[in-house]
Amino acid sequence: MTRTPLRPLPRILSAREHGENPDAIERENLRLRHEEMRDKSRDRAEGRLLVLGIFFLCAFLAVGMRMAVLAASEPSEPRMAAAGAAIVNQRADIVDRNGRILATNLQTFSLYAQPPVMIDKEHAARELVKIFPDLQQDQLIKQFTGNRKFIWIKRRISPEQKQAVHDIGDPGLQFGPREMRLYPNGPVASHVLGGAGFGREGVSSAEVIGIAGVEKQFDRYLRDPANSTAPLQLSLDLTLQAATEEVLAGGMRLMNAKGAAAIMMDIHTGEVLAIASLPDFDPNNRPRPLTQGDQSDSPLFNRAVQGVYELGSTFKIFTAAQALELGLVQPETIIDIKGPLQWGRFTIRDFRDHGTQLSVTDVIAKSSNIGTARIALDIGSDRQKSFLQTLGVTEPLPFEMIEAHTVNPLYPRNWSEISVMTISYGHGVSTSPLHLAGAYASLLNGGTKVTPTLLKQDGPQNGPRVISERTSAQARTMLRKVVTDGSATFGEVPGYHVAGKTGTADKPRTNGGGYYDDRVIATFASIFPAHDPKYVLVVSLDEPVETSGEEPRRTAGWTAVPVAAEIIRRTAPLLGLRPQVEPGPITGVTLTAN
User: pLDDT value at position 591?
Assistant: First the structure.
């Protein structure tokens, strides 16, 4: 930096020559130097103020943006950082085949208490009991005055309850956000959906996990965040399901039954369109399992899937179809039904006297135990067992419900000749109504194997062939005669040509062995329309009693069949089926040529 002298010699000499005061030159230079120093100091200070202003502006902008983000976000309780996976609480929806919601999510809140922060613990306890009558005031006071610093009060509360608790005004009562599972249709399809509950829980979230039904079967899929926008689509039709349950409930009350089950299935795709078990429950408020007694008495018990019963004469068509397929008989073959049929210490009788001879078709139509047993003896144990295995009635089904995997049909370890005879008419072997529906579909859809499924399919299953198309058609004709002339005349629905088979089996005693004399499982397995089958319907009633006559009647023809007919009458139009005139054989027509 160059400094200018205060008394430059040239100017001093010039000033003296002109008679000026040299001291004025020094004062002027000193003033100019001070002004230069002042300007530099001012510029430096202004630069510093500018930098500081920019810094404060950035700080205020950052604070303001953070405040805006917090104001726009949901409030949440602070939580300590902890190792472990975060709780993922977005669960995929479950919908029916038409996309209608069966299970979804609802944002709600939990209620907990922090006793060290509470102001008036007794007052809070009194007010909480008014809001939640199931709580006990003394127990709450004991918890609030104890040594605990955190207490769960309610896992789920409604918005109205939250506001009521908020009005108490105690800072120790806190709320945590929750995602709960909601079933908007209540008990409809409750056994299929099963229900969900909470797994891991935190103050600000809870893990929703499936505990039964498809909720548990597909728990991993439903909990996967990648599937949160891809609902699980079932084969059920919500409208059909509701109609089936409504009619079944009415039939159960009318027939004084202890329980009931119904399954409607597409005969070609295996899609279960409706599956009902009564009594049922509301999965929004799932009851606790029974801790003692018979589990089948619990509303949680799924009679359609978990119920393993002797299904009686519904099995007779399997015997007749196998004999037809093996070429042992024809539909018009005459069978000796003279009885009773004695086999060692066992006696086989018919429920009614049908004379001494019947054709194979009439053995099925009149439901002759003796005739079916004689046909089965010609088939033999090995072939009978193999055929039933092919139909899938002796093994657990790969059905998409967690409960189905543990259902093991019961059959004799030693498949003797007496077993062959009794199994031919549905005694000595126990299976579920769902097994029966799958077997009827496989036998009567043209003879190809069908496995029941709860997932929507793109088309027919086209499984391996079970019997020939000719045998399948003959079996359908036999079952049609059961409805027109046999034991299921109450099953006729004009325009829909129902075919099916009744089955009435004595119910085994729960203790002591043997069978009850006055308790039965009544079943009707049917298809419709008979000439072009599209759907299978199985209806089963537990301990029905029809009391309109002078004596109580328990057989399936009087109990299960009318209920099934009403279900078909109610649901067939929903399935898009129009009433039709049943095609018959062309007789008495002479073809001529011009």
Answer: 44
